[in-house]
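USER: Please consider what follows.
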Amino acid sequence: MVRPGLRRVGIVLCVGLVCFLGASCGDSYELQSISITPSTGLTLSTPGETESISVIAYFSNSKSLGVTQQSSYTIAAPDPGMISTAPDGAVLYESPNLISASPTVLACTVSGGVNYPYTVTASYTRSGITKTASIPVTVTDGCP
């Protein structure tokens, strides 16, 4: 006959072992890729206009997770050698999910019917693996 106190200790140890093993097994999948929505990019046509984005991470266990808040972001202006009407500071990162046209720095990424967009890049890291995704941002608030 097992004493009730020993039975409780045994149950606690078993539950603890299952939780420990489950936690370590949960990290065995790897980050495969991320994507930004909308994947086709954004168009900002008025000063101060704001659009939202979201970032989804995809893992080797076929699961996905929203990581918009945990991602970091950079914005790159088009090459000034290609287009001179798209200055730095015309596209702003407002919060983890908002990209906006500057209310004071106007831009035009379209010249001669060709678009030279800004690039918003999101980066997400999990367990030492970093993935990035980018979308184009067309700005027309400074176009003639």
Notes: Residues 12-26 have pLDDT under 50 and may be disordered.
